[in-house]
UniProtKB/TrEMBL annotation:
Belongs to the alpha-carbonic anhydrase family. Transmembrane segments: none annotated. InterPro entries: Alpha_CA_prokaryot-like, CA_dom, CA_dom_sf, Carbonic_anhydrase_a-class, Carbonic_anhydrase_a-class_CS. This is Carbonic anhydrase. Its EC number is 4.2.1.1. Pfam families: Carb_anhydrase (PF00194). It comes from Acinetobacter gerneri DSM 14967 = CIP 107464 = MTCC 9824. The lineage of its organism: Bacteria, Pseudomonadati, Pseudomonadota, Gammaproteobacteria, Moraxellales. Its cofactor is Zn(2+). Residues 1-19 form the signal peptide. Keywords: Lyase, Metal-binding, Signal, Zinc.
Length: 249
């Protein structure tokens, strides 16, 4: 039964397209999240989808089967940019940055930040959430979500920020050696569910891995990102779960 549930969850994770910026959207005013579905026909799923992200994680299914996730992020990121919605770090087109789930390889495309967190855990919201976006050869997406809480400074964030330029769409190469593993929690217990992109076009079929345990950044580091956003939020509100199974592993 447990293996069946796991398989059904995996089957729900079909192909999802990347966020489309042809039509302007945002997080405030008439282009905010509650209006996304009406901004464009391409964005209709933002209003009508039944497996949307983020969610409030609660009432999980405890799996006794082992479903280890192997993360090999060995290659240095390529560049960093403020794209108007978030700070995004783009990965090199390489097979040296990969996540392996049940024998399937997903390759890191980029990671970015949301403040405050989009997913919540038993109603708890964190000041920051990092999304590592990975895709397999067929374009199916797996997102690793890492919560960030206020605490000890993170040295990798300091090195990333050294190369960052706050002007919109000004891409800067990464010059420091970044240990991406240090942006992941050391304890790798997680929640898993099928969801969507949290930005337009809100495509569904995204496999979500949300780590239980947060990493830390200092208050100054968190505020560096918030300052770029003019201290406005860039998180989509929690969406209805609609009976989806959330596996706790």
């Amino acid at each position: 039964m447990k293996k069946l549930i796991w398989g059904l969850l995996c089957c729900c994770a079909g192909s999802a397209s990347y966020a489309n910026n042809d039509v302007h959207w945002g997080y405030q005013g008439e282009v905010s999240a509650e209006h996304w579905g009406a901004l464009s026909d391409q964005y209709q799923l933002c209003a009508t989808g039944k497996n949307q992200s983020p969610i409030n994680i609660q009432g999980t299914y405890h799996s006794t089967d082992q479903h280890p996730i192997q993360i090999d992020y060995a290659e240095n990121p390529e560049n960093i940019v403020f794209n108007g919605h978030t700070v995004q770090v783009n990965a090199k087109n390489s097979q040296n940055n990969k996540v392996t789930i049940d024998g399937e390889n997903y390759y890191l495309k980029q990671f970015h930040f949301h403040t405050p967190s989009e997913n919540t855990i038993d109603g708890k919201q964190f000041p920051l959430e990092i999304h590592f976006v990975n895709a397999n050869a067929q374009g199916q997406l797996t997102v690793l979500a890492v919560m960030v809480e206020n605490g000890q400074a993170n040295p990798e964030w300091t090195k990333l920020w050294k190369d960052f330029k706050a002007q919109e769409n000004q891409t800067k190469p990464i010059t420091s050696q970044i240990q991406l593993q240090n942006l992941l929690p050391t304890t790798r217990e997680y929640y898993r569910f099928s969801g969507s992109l949290t930005t337009p076009p809100c495509s569904e079929g995204v496999n979500w891995i949300v780590y239980k345990n947060p990493i830390t950044m200092s208050q100054d580091q968190i505020q560096m990102l918030q300052k770029v956003l003019n201290f406005q939020h860039n998180n989509r509100p929690v969406q209805v779960q609609n009976g989806r199974i959330v596996i706790e592993d």
